[in-house]
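Table S2 (text version). Query chain:
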Amino acid sequence: MKEFFLYLSHLTFSRVLNLLLCGVGYLFSQILRYPVVLGKPWSVSIEPTTRCNFQCPECPTGIGELGRRAGDMALDRFIDIINEIEHTTLTVLLHFQGEPLMNPDIYKMVEYASSKRIITEMATNATLLDKEASEKLVKSGLKKIVISIDSPSEKEFGMYRKGGQLTGVLLGIENIQQAKLKYKTGYPLLCLELLAFKNNVSRIEDFVTLGKSLRADVIRVKTVQLLNLEDAADKIPIGTKYCRYEKRVDGSIALKGKANSPCSVPWYKCSLTHDGWIVPCCFDKSATYLLGSINTHSLNEVWYSKHYNNFRKRLIRHRRLMPVCSTCPQGRVKIDFNVG
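Corresponding structure-token output:
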């Protein structure tokens, strides 16, 4: 309910109109089997950095296999993006790959986007949230923060969150909550997340209890994306709703749902890498589909370009044949569940 009122309070006529245009364009695109793009990005994911202080084994950044140049987004580039999208974009997600708090300009980024009444959201591992960082983040105007606690057990937590400790995450959460009390604000909303592995899916009730004790606004379970499906049965809870994969008749493991399911994301959203490349969505972690660069064109020029529309056309007609898109759960299977 808090999220609903947050979004409602940031709606403007131009943003509502843009959402309607996005929807109408997508509807006509599905009917005509040809891309019709009427709106502009309703939500934009911007990558502050590719650097991270964790080495999570199912993350391409964590294992050093991202396949693109590492770095931080420059503040002036971020400001240019916000200036272009401020009237039509409702939310800016300050995460993609990497740990956002490793970019020293992250607080200025949040503050600037918030000054344009754009809802800002960040996913962080929380280990860098000392008291000073937490207060700066709260004062910057961040509206939502997503933090993963994959188990209330230190041992189980460390099985996936390599390089971090549960005690450090819990301390970061408490620092954020104390900063909110100090500045008498309910923001950022705290969303706690558990990635459902085979070893921790039985601990969901304990996770919910912990989340409530930490005064979380949203408590959810998210299914795991695997980089390699060879040993999937040993890692994920196949056969439960908390798994995006299923075991086929031939014994193979595959993503649930139909491979040609429609995807609306390229009509509503886009993602930007730290160095200015525009990619279709956050599932394209290695930037397989480079749709244009804000270093040479405006975001809107790229959004309406022939190259971007060619991508949309392929997605409408041949999704199951496209790298990245054919293994993406969007439109195929539910990947997160509110549990508390």
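Notes on Table S2: Residues 77 and 245 are 38 Å apart (CA to CA). DSSP finds twelve helices and twelve strands in the chain.
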